[in-house]
Design a protein that fits this description.
The complex is a heterodimer.
Chain A lengths: L1 H32 L6 H10 L3 H12 L4 H26 L4 H8 L4 H14 L3 H27 L11 H10 L6 H20 L6 H23 L1
Helix pairs in contact in A: 1-3, 1-7, 2-7, 3-4, 4-6, 4-10, 6-7, 9-10
Chain B lengths: L2 H21 L8 H23 E4 L2 E4 L1 H17 L2 H18 L1
Helix pairs in contact in B: 3-4
Classes of the chains: A mainly alpha, B mainly alpha.
Pfam families (chain A): AzlC
Membrane topology (chain A): Multi-pass membrane protein
Main location (chain A): membrane
Chain lengths: 231, 103
């Protein structure tokens, strides 16, 4: 029992700093939804049921730009591919949990939960309770901040307060810390180039983001291989 | 497709990607190249979205939005200096707003 209490305490303590960062993203997501056709209820429902910062951010950005639901689904499916990696890496650490609980714990697989979960499993072995506490802390931070952001965003004039600028600015703040190493930088530059070319040739093409998102990583792979060969 | 249907489909596709990883991919060795490709996809999509939002439609073409460009540059520089998410966003939006009113 004592051990369980310690795990819960450890999980909450270690998750809190990241939960604050997640809340900042959630606040931005909530504000951004007010720039789309999403109602307060649907914006909150997306946080409750999807619970994925990257998927939700990309979905609202694409909806705001007039993309169709089909292209939103394709782009977010591409984003979700990395969950396969996270899930596979976390599976052993979650294996002591009964199957139905593993199904629930799977809902908590995300970038941040993966980082904390995999570090814990490496040090202490499988620990589904710890992962559950971490995921729940992140979940509560995400839905609360999404709701607050959506309420704040719906009560101010978007142009006067520059909320239309919130999309590109938020994505810049998400992208910048990830730009480390030549392959990643090459991927981002090629994605920008493909987008600019496609927008000039066929303005408003709804497949621009999907093409850039699917093709640019191939250049990243090429640069990664060349960098490795040269070392 | 209405927004509720889209949310339902996003819920299903996101949950499937998570549960398949935990229940089916476990213990299988994934190709290193595929793994790297998956890691680069979010970078590519986010970069493409930023570029897309810098280009605004005009009569028969597109133009670069200076407020968006300046807002993004201000955010990037601030984030590099102070390493804090929310203040960087606020400074970026403020810079973009100033550019909108004074340029």
């Amino acid at each position: 029992m004592n051990n369980k209490k310690q795990t819960i305490k450890k999980g909450v303590t270690e998750a809190l700093p990241l939960a604050i960062a997640i809340a900042a993203y959630g606040l931005s997501y909530g504000v951004l939804t007010t720039q789309t056709s999403l109602s307060l209820a649907s914006a909150l429902a997306m946080s409750l049921f999807v619970f994925s910062g990257s998927v939700q951010m990309v979905a609202v950005a694409m909806l705001a730009a007039g993309a169709t639901a089909t292209s939103v689904l394709i782009a977010t499916a591409l984003l979700n591919l990395r969950n396969l990696l996270y899930g596979a890496a976390l599976a052993e650490g979650l294996s002591p949990a009964p199957r139905k609980w593993r199904g629930l714990l799977s809902f908590g697989v995300s970038d941040e939960a993966f980082v904390l979960g995999s570090a814990r499993f490496q040090k202490h072995g499988p620990d589904p309770l710890y992962f559950g506490i971490v995921a729940t802390t992140f979940y509560l931070a995400w839905i609360t901040s999404s709701y607050i952001g959506a309420v704040i965003g719906s009560q101010v004039d978007p142009l006067k307060w520059g909320l239309d600028l919130a999309f590109p600015v938020t994505f810049t703040a998400i992208l910048i810390p990830s730009l480390r190493g030549k392959p990643v930088i090459a991927t981002a530059l090629v994605a920008v180039t493909i987008t600019v070319i496609l927008q000039y040739v066929t303005p408003g093409n709804e497949f621009t983001i999907i093409l850039a998102g699917g093709l640019s990583p191939l250049i990243g792979l090429y640069v990664s291989r060349r960098t490795r060969d040269n070392e | 497709m209405n927004n509720w249907m889209l949310i339902a489909l996003l819920t299903i596709s996101t949950y499937l990607s998570r549960v398949i990883g935990v229940e089916i991919m476990a213990g299988r060795e994934m190709n290193a190249t595929l793994r790297l490709y998956f890691n680069y996809v979010p970078i590519a999509i986010i970069a493409a979205l930023i570029a897309n939002q810098m280009l605004v439609p005009t009569d028969g073409g597109i133009a670069l939005s200076l407020p968006v460009l300046i807002g993004c540059l201000a955010t990037a520089i601030t984030l590099k200096v102070i390493h804090t998410f929310l203040p960087s966003l606020i400074i970026g939006i403020a810079a973009g707003l100033l550019a909108r009113y004074f340029l």
